[in-house]
Amino acid sequence: MNLSRRAMLSTSAALASSVAFPELSFAQEQPRRGGVMTVHFATEQRILNPSLQASTGVYIVGGKIQEPLVDLDAAGNPAPCLAESWESSADGKTITFKLRQGVTWHDGKPFTSADVQFTAMEMWKKILNYGTALQLFLEAVDTPDPHTAVFRYARPMPMNLILRAMPDLGYVSARHIYEGSDIRQNPANTAPMGTGPFRFVQYERGQFIIAERNPNYWRNNLPYLDRVVWRVVGDRSAAAAQMEAGQILFSPYSALAIADFQRLGRDPRFDVTTKGNEGNARTNTLEFNFRNPVLADIRVRRAIAHALDVPFFIENFLGDFAKKGTGPIPSVSTDYYPGPDTPQYAFDRRRANALLDEAGHRRGAGGVRFTLRLHPAPWGEDIALWSTFIQQSLQEVGIRVEVVRLDAAGFLRTVYNDWNFDLATGWHQYRNDPAVSTTVWYRSGQPKGAPWTNQWGWTDAQTDQIIDAAQTELDPAKRKALYGDFVRRVNDQIPLWMPIEQIFVSVFNRRLRNYANNPRWASSSWHDLWLAS
Amino acid sequence: MRVFALAGRRLAASLPTLLIILVGVFLLLQLAPGDTVDALMAQMGGGGDAQVAADLRAFYGLDLSVPAQLGNYLWRLVRLDLGFSSIYGKPVATVILERLPATLLLMASALSFAFFFGLVLGVLAARRVNGWPDTLISTLGLVFYATPSFWFGLMAIVLFAVHLEWLPAGGFEEIGAGYTGLRRVLDIATHLVLPTLTLGLIFLAIYLRIMRASMLEVLNLDFVRTARAKGLDETRVVVKHVLRNAMLPMVTLVGLQAGTMLGGSVVVESVFSLPGLGRLAYESVVQRDLNTLLGIVFVSALLVITVNFIVDLLYARLDPRIGAGG
């Protein structure tokens, strides 16, 4: 790509191509080559290979080094990456990906369909979280030629589902690195090798990770940056100070304190925004344990929902980066959001009291009807605030709440494996299609101990039936309608409640250019990112 | 030879303590709900397969009973094998060895800083007791002692790194700069200035109080009066006669606190993003990485034993009346 010529392109041409080539959207400014991008890395991971672990902490590093078959474009639509095109058979059981030619791994070996076949069968299907469920009915990947991978499924796989899932669950690893080894113990897990714009250089635990420009990247003349450095900073206030000192240029995924977001947001040197995180929506949950007969009563669950003044909480504690939620499918999901006209529970203390009286829970000594334990998840300042808010709000309607705070391992074990809780609250992460990580919170028959799934002891035949039908429905319109039914049903039955919708907050140094130009930017490859002088 | 015999005896006497500590920590961590696979699941953020989790538990030996796990651990320890870290995917000995230099460096510099300035300020305060230097020094000491170290650290970063831009805000050295030799030493030194001050100030406060009290006590003893009667000037009296005797309580305290500091300082290491043992230990607890945690306890205990041994030798040197065998 000739840069000076590109800069002279007429405005209209640049506009016309900006959808296909998002890197052109800042075309009025000449991209500068070189520079080092420094990133806040808050929680160190055990591995960095996104073919083996689907989590934001892995994508923030591995997503620059390895690439998925399909990515998202600026508008949030599936866009070619390692796969150039795709098509589905009429029965939805065969999906063919045409792979990009002339792509090489960082060690110089060519990228072929054998890599896709190996990654899909050995990693996505067997190890990758969410991948194991998505690829449950994947029978084989055929490789008729080095640039064609044919996925064969035992049951129909909706094209929309696989394309929405691939940007997160479609990262490819090199067969020649992993074949014949113990995949879990492979040294490439912490020194990843891929086809992406940056090559892994060094990982010093507890300190930093370095990756450098891949000179043989398939997008010619990209990336602009020389290096990416991830700095391990566990302390949130220290990370904010390093942003201010210019040691860190980007802090992803709401990793700073809420007060610091507000403070840095007023500073002209920084952009504090949810932009670029639209693909990473989450909702705050309130989970009920149905093994407690008090909570198995739908009137009590509805009363608890009516007792919480959600808009007040959002306005006073979370600020601009949160809004009232309307159910498990957040409003940013343009494909599946059913609108706000589903059963809702507005703040109404009188109604809450009436429902509790009706359920037979009269106020006893000190005005207390009954006592519940609430387990808040230990991640996120908002969860801690929300749990205190629940405790104080429910006291007003005569429910005494004991907050039990545990660390991550303790929380997961106690709530999802031992079922030793009454109420729990944490985050539900929405991953662009409800079938990826949302319906598992409601579908019965989840294996005991699987976190963030239906461990409530709640079974509803109607919900199960809708979920199963939508899972294999190939017609996008029908699928959307089914998910509307799903939201209406679970909002009515309220086995768990999702009253707050949030998008992760990023803090950018304004010297960065081309940042946040796709809905999963923090996870994406940063091939067009550059740094103004 | 006597020194080696003493060292051997000390080590043998410490072995039961070491065993009790290790078994205690092991059992204590069993009381915490959840294991390292739960911690991994939390990192993955859901979608984990039940079979994958079961395989992992078998891989880490977590499917065995608690006594069997403890027995396995102790048997490995006898063969000087600290085991395998589940979060780092390498041998625990390697993981600890990587973190040890930063911890030792920070500890040594903070302790020397606190020791030196504690001594000087303590002596100054004692010589002008109840005068304005004494009041000033004692008040400052109280302020340092009462201020939480994380706040001190953060304020130091805000002032010296963010506003004045004199020093780096965190980290152990300039990342990827590839410095060698003296340039690298200087680079690490500039990165350690703020953490050393933050960690050292609290200890400095303690040392100056101890030194002041100790000096005041020794200054009133008979041999000091004799020295003055001989016609020695005040500086000679203080340096040659008082200081050496007044140092004993300081040395005791340094010996005790060196042990605490060797475990690393979670707060200072977190605030300044330093790769030390404290953060490693914290991470191991949160991630339920039993092998790593026990390894840190083991290594720290060994270091404490060593430091105490050196302190014993120092006693004998400072005060010949205390025999090294005593």
Your description of this structure?
The complex is a heterodimer of chains A (533) and B (326). Chain A is an alpha+beta fold and 533 residues long. Chain A folds into 3 domains: 3-46 and 196-276 and 505-531, Periplasmic binding protein-like II (D-Maltodextrin-Binding Protein, domain 2, 3-Layer(aba) Sandwich); 67-179, Dipeptide-binding Protein, Domain 1 (Dipeptide-binding Protein, domain 1), CATH 3.90.76.10; 281-503, Dipeptide-binding Protein, Domain 3 (Dipeptide-binding Protein, domain 3), CATH 3.10.105.10. Helix content of chain A is 30%, strand content 20%. Chain A has 18 helices and 22 strands. In chain A, strands 13, 14, 15, 16, 17, 18 and 19 form a 7-stranded mixed β-sheet that branches. In chain A, strands 1-10-9-8 form a 4-stranded mixed β-sheet, with helices on one face. A 4-stranded antiparallel β-sheet of chain A has the order 4-5-7-6, covered by helices on one side. In chain A, helix 11 (298-306) packs antiparallel against helix 13. Chain A is globular and about 75 Å long. Chain B has 326 residues and is mainly alpha-helical. Chain B folds into 2 domains: 2-92, no CATH class; 100-287 and 303-315, MetI-like fold (Orthogonal Bundle), CATH 1.10.3720. Chain B is 76% helix and 0% strand. Chain B has 13 helices and no strands. Chain B has helices at residues 2-31, 36-44, 50-59, 66-78, 92-127, 132-146, 149-163, 181-219, 222-229, 234-262, 266-271, 277-286, 290-318. Chains A and B meet through helix 5, strand 8, strand 10, helix 8 and helix 15 of A and helix 2, helix 3, helix 5, helix 7 and helix 12 of B.
